[in-house]
Amino acid sequence: MNRKDALKKISGASLLPFLPNLAFSSETENTLLAGKVNHSVCKWCYSDIPLEEMCEKTQDFGITSIELLGPKEWPIVQKYGLNCAMGNPETFSLTEGFNDPSKHQELQEVYKEVIPQAAEAGLSKIICFSGNRNELSDEEGLENCAIGLDPLVKLAKLHGITLCMELLNSKIDHKDYQCDHTSWGAALAEKLGSEHFKLLYDIYHMQIMEGDVIRTIRDNQPYIAHYHTGGVPGRNEIDDTQELNYKAIMEAIVATGYDGFVAQEFIPKSDKPLDSLKKAVEICDV
Q: How much helix, strand and coil, in percent to the nearest 5, is found in the chain?
């Protein structure tokens, strides 16, 4: 199962398991952190672990948010004193998004419902997607997204919510996805002209599409409201088995003044997935 398939299922029924048999070692104990990075984790990467168990175990090593959850799941993480740093509607699509005018009414109805729900629940960010190109030019797609998002961004402002469009790679994982370069997302943010629309910069995806991660982050930080991790290639652990220097990337993010969350979004290959998550938190804690 890849992220696209899992995201379609994270709201509602339980995910199908796709990870190895779980084993938790004594290493998943409390870790002292530097405190400059707010640590989150995307639940879909740990589908074999029930959400409540995830809430209990991840706090031991510094996770303060579990994200990419729908409204029915927000109260569960909050019961454990955790945040949901990036929420999503109960139903959504990565491939059919705001670049398609025929989807605007449907999407606006969905987001007009979830935005006040998120505000009432104390969330601050909700994810959204451009959708696939389907032969649209970058200019057409950008204009369509701006038209479809404009009334929602205004609604989000009223409720103190920021809509975050995720940057995904269209080379490997999400063929034909339109918001696949930081410059395109930044241009959309400029066009909308609101602090209540920004980008979710997925480091894994943007390394695949454009590389030059640290400079891109520095140059586009005003447009970025959230970060995701993942090892390249493969979207697995972010340790020295992959090509990115995550400690240097985190230092660059902190240096921009960013004070939001960084969410681990890698699929563990280890048979001790929470140990992999603990190590990732340690790598990113600068």
A: 40, 15, 45
Q: pTM to 2 decimals?
A: 0.90
Percent of the chain with pLDDT over 70: 89
Distance separating alpha carbons of residues 2 and 13, to the nearest angstrom:
17
**How do residues 41-52 score in pLDDT, each as one tens digit?**
999 999 999 999
Specify the pLDDT at position 33.
Answer: 87
Closest of 149, 176, 184 to residue 163, by C-alpha = 149
Residues 6+ apart with CB under 8 A from 188: 142, 145, 146, 165, 179, 197
Round to whole Å and give the CA distance between 105 and 267. 34
User: What contacts 163, CB < 8 A, 6 or more positions away?
Assistant: 111, 125, 126, 127, 128, 149, 152, 153, 156, 196, 197, 198
Helices 51-58 and 273-284: crossing angle, nearest 10°?
50
Joined tokens for residue 237: 């652990």
Q: How far is the C-alpha of 272 from the C-alpha of 237, rounded, in Å?
A: 12
Portion of the chain with pLDDT greater than 90, in percent? 87
Query: What residues does 87 pair with on adjacent strands?
Result: 69, 126
